[in-house]
Design a protein that fits this description.
Elements (H helix, E strand, L loop, with lengths): L8 H19 L7 H9 L11 H6 L23 H31 L13
Amino acid sequence: MPAFPALSPVAARTAILLAIVPACLSAGGCVLDGAGIRDAAKSAGFGPKEVAAPDFVKETRRGGGEFLPVGVSAPPRETRAKSAAGVKQLEAELDASRQRNEAKGRDAAKVGGAVKPPAPPKVPPAE
């Protein structure tokens, strides 16, 4: 049997919430962030409804997405840093790629400069 039989469920939850909030404020149990009021509202049924994540979200999430606690070091990395020779090789590859791209850009600029822009359209005189 409901606590307030003559009231609708929404009105009953509102009455309960209005009874809890002043008690919470007077007892000093509410922190400035409003967590106590939020929790009271959620327990009275006023909070947002919990929505399950769609399947594609569950499938794409990585497991173990927990944050490390303060003061705990991260586990060692599985991949090692490149050696000095590996860094030099990568720099040479990137420089060669840059030079190829610049050459392609110069060629495209030459082709674009050789093409004449179209003449503006002729508008018939206004009558």
